Amino acid sequence: MNTTEKVIFEQFPYWEKAIGANPADSSSKLLVFVGCGTSYNLALSLAAYSNLAGRMAIAVPGAEWESRPSAFWPDWRDTHVVALSRSGETTETVAAAKASRSAGAFVTAVTVEPESSLARNCDRMISTETHSDEGIVMTVSASLMVLLGLQMIGQHVPSSVVAAARKLAGALDRVLPAMIADRTHFVFLGGGPLFGIALEGALKLMEMSQIMTQAFHPLEYRHGPISLVDEKTAVVMLYSSEQREAETKLVGELRDKGAVVIGLGGPGDVELAVDADLSLTGLVVLPALQILGERAAQARQIDTVSPRHLTKVVKL
Ligand code: F1P
After folding, report:
1. Could you tell me which residue ranges the SIS domain spans (predicted)?
2. Binning pLDDT at 50, 70 and 90, where does residue 251 land?
């Protein structure tokens, strides 16, 4: 077992420590979730969860918010910026936090590095301990930032999510070898708060295995991208409640065209149950998506401990 795989399966005690660790935020300003790479994907999901819970929110990549915030929100100086960064050192995210603060916005940092530049340039910090062996590819810290972010927007995270996430990752891992052995085109589909999670599944698998991946809102996939589906395609469908029927129909079409479909929370070539309330699905599926990336890399004999062209922190 390599270190990446070990860390993915050892992440759950850190979840237990983070559960209940931070209170809900009560400000009424627009929440602007900001981050880069994985942290931006998480921002997208958290913003959607926040809107669903009645707290208005948007998600913006760090560099975009730093350089042209008014393209995203006209009244950008009067917002509550939530900057997500594992390292707390990513140039664009730190710059976005600094620019927001100096313009009068309130800045909360969500990070696992309480001594970082981001932590020094915020009004409030939310942090928790992460696995010390986590490498370049972000796994446990991504899950932890979603957990902290959910609690920040007032979502109760029950300890049952730990067992649900562990069970799903194990169940997916058992069926993966047969499903992905000869697949070279991976597609992740998810709607609402699961779109950011679909993007994160795609980014993880791409970083780990150097395979081109894609992520779409489920029904968007029929508008063009479906032309690429063949017997080399593997699809991960993150089922929602609102569009379950349409998503099920789409999965049937994709299977007819040769794709193998992993159904998380609904039908597919395999159907794996997600034992959690829909407001927690995004968190619960993350470890399963991480192990999928690792297994795809192993199938190609690619080392995820030193992934090509990647560094743990990106500084400009
Ligand atoms: C985010 C990030 C990662 C990416 C790479 C570089 O960093 O872009 O998503 O995989 O490792 O950093 P951070 O701001 O959360 O530390």
Report:
1. 19-168, 176-302
2. very high
CA distance 35 to 166: 26
Mutate which of 138, 203, 208 for ligand 1? The one with the most ligand atoms within 8 Å of its CB, which is 138
Helical H runs in the chain?
3-9, 12-18, 38-52, 62-67, 91-102, 117-120, 140-152, 160-180, 193-209, 244-256, 281-299
Residue 310 alpha carbon to ligand 1 centre in Å: 9
Note whether 215 and 290 are same-domain residues. yes
Q: Coil, helix or strand for 58? A: strand
Query: Could you tell me if 39 and 131 lie in one domain?
Result: yes
**CA-CA distance, 145 to 125, in Å (whole number)?**
12
Residue nearest to atom 4 of ligand 1 (CA): 37
Q: Are residues 98 and 47 in the same domain?
A: yes
Under 8 Å between Cβ of 128 and 2: no
Ligand 1 pocket residues where CB is under 6 Å: 36-39, 85-87, 90, 93, 136, 138, 207, 310, 312-314
Distance 26 CA to ligand 1 centre (A): 28
Mutate to test the pocket of ligand 1, among 42, 86, 199 (most ligand atoms within 8 A of CB): 86
Position 309 in a domain: no
Q: In this structure, are 97 and 11 located in the same domain?
A: yes
**What stretch of H or E contains 235?**
strand 233-238
Predicted structure pTM score: 0.97
